[in-house]
Write a structure and sequence with these properties.
The protein is mainly alpha-helical and 154 residues long. It has one domain. It is built from seven helices and two strands, in the order αβααβαααα.
Length: 154
């Protein structure tokens, strides 16, 4: 019975990673169409920065080293299959986030600026140590107290 649970988990993980691969591939496909001026009413502008992001609701796998490798391999295969330039992955590396991690990183992004943050991320200039030392703000602390804790006190 335990082996079946592991197999079910692996099947679910493989399916979920496939969804992310599809989402990332779609981003690169849209960018390729944009760059080739194939999107009516949206003229390509070289000055615009393309940063492919996929956000998931799940905290348990997005951004992990093993899953990132699986996603990268899948995206590369899909780009080849669809005739999309694989150099986009090098020039514009994609990033997967869980919504929880994005919420934290948004504070860094707003502090540094969108393009600066992703340039630093791309070149490895944002370390885990820097992330841990960043003075994050608890956005909803007051609201949490008002909604959940204050009614209990009365």
């Amino acid at each position: 019975m335990e082996l079946q649970h592991i197999t079910d988990f692996e099947d679910t993980l493989t399916e979920d990673l496939g969804f992310i691969v599809s989402a990332v591939t779609q981003l690169y496909k849209v960018y390729a169409n944009y760059k080739d001026n194939l999107i009516p009413g949206l003229k390509y502008m070289n000055s615009k920065k393309f940063i492919p992001l996929v956000v998931t609701l799940e905290d348990w796998f997005a951004g992990g080293p093993d899953t990132d490798d699986v996603i990268k391999a899948g995206v590369e295969a899909e780009l080849i299959k669809n005739g999309i330039d694989r150099e986009y992955m090098i020039e514009f590396p994609f990033k997967t986030y869980s919504i929880n991690q994005l919420e934290l990183d948004l504070q860094l992004i707003f502090s540094l600026g969108f393009i600066e943050y992703f340039e630093r991320l791309k070149t490895g200039k944002i370390s885990e140590e820097e992330r841990h030392k960043f003075p994050y703000i608890d956005y909803f602390t007051d609201e949490f107290n008002q909604v959940f804790l204050d009614p209990i006190k009365e």
